[in-house]
Amino acid sequence: MHPRQKTALVTGASRGIGAAIARRLARDGFAVAVNYAASVRDADAIVSEIERADGHAFAVQADLADAGDTERMFDAVSDRFSQLDVVVHNAGIQLLGAHAEMDGVALDQLVAVNLTAAFRVLSRAARQVSDGGRILALSSGTTAVLPPRYGVYAATKAGVDVLIAVLAKELRGRGVTANAIAPGPVATDLYLKGKTEADLEATAARTPLGRLGQPDDIAGAIAFLAGPGGEWVNGQTILVNGGLI
Ligand code: NDP
Q: Per residue in 93-125, pLDDT tens?
């Protein structure tokens, strides 16, 4: 009998870091549910790329700021996969502003997408992930660096760190681990938006490895935690930033 293929749900997998995680987990043998909010073409392209490489994937639309969409996404995953082994909650947005400037709309959006949605996804993952599975979330190195204008964004990600640490304890007895990865700057739409060449060069120069992070750098860390070697890491937020801090 063939062993059952392992399965993973990656949120925000149409672009950037999430797309790299979906590709990497598929390469490591997982069937992957590729969540997106709006970028249907990008999500379909990731699914096609995985299938061309003889992997298994499907795309599932859900705006995770919406509670009903989040439930629908997990229902779609349980319709397609007999078990769910790994959830990677990667979807997120970044809006910046000093305390004296940031308006209530940006504040509400950040909290809705980065914190409330994270709680809902982790909460449903806690119920749906099979015993022995893995729950992972994307935090941010800004919770350690604390740059001006990143206050609300970093606060939502610090919230993710706390949720993950508590969740790991609540999962006691099931062999399910929960961890967060906190990337430094990674060359994606989210990070590159509004930056000049000089900004990017300055950040690369501050990093001991002399470059910006790439989505595959983060996917490698996620693959380790999702794979057999990551079993003993639990309840942690791990900085993956080329040594920037
Ligand atoms: P991108 O902006 O490149 O991609 C964001 C992804 O999240 C897209 O797939 C997008 O879907 C999805 N998404 C956004 N909002 C929602 C929503 N409401 N519901 C469902 N999906 C949504 O971001 P990155 O790849 O750079 O970031 C991924 C994660 O990593 C984020 O949580 C971010 O905070 C974190 N991070 C990023 C860093 C960086 O430097 N890039 C550094 C540290 C942390 P769609 O395409 O459909 O809009």
A: 999 999 999 999 999 999 999 999 999 999 999
Q: In the annotation, is 150 catalytic?
A: no
CATH number for the domain harbouring residue 120: 3.40.50.720
Question: Does the C-beta of 103 come closer than 6 Å to ligand 1?
Answer: no
Model confidence, pTM: 0.98
Q: Tens digit of pLDDT for each residue in 27-66?
A: 999 999 999 999 999 999 999 999 999 999 999 999 999 9
The ligand 1 atom nearest the CA atom of 189: 3
Q: Which domain holds residue 72?
A: 7-239
SS (H, E, C) the chain: CCCCCCEEEECCCCCHHHHHHHHHHHHCCCEEEEEECCCHHHHHHHHHHHHHCCCCEEEEECCCCCHHHHHHHHHHHHHHCCCEEEEEECCCCCCCCCCCCCCHHHHHHHHHHHHHHHHHHHHHHHHHEEEEEEEEEECCCHHHHCCCCCHHHHHHHHHHHHHHHHHHHHCCCCCCEEEEEEECCECCHHHHCCCCHHHHHHHHHHCCCCCCECHHHHHHHHHHHHCHHHCCCCCCEEEECCCCC
User: Is residue 133 lining ligand 1, measured as CB closer than 6 Å?
Assistant: no
Q: Specify the number of domains making up the chain.
A: 1
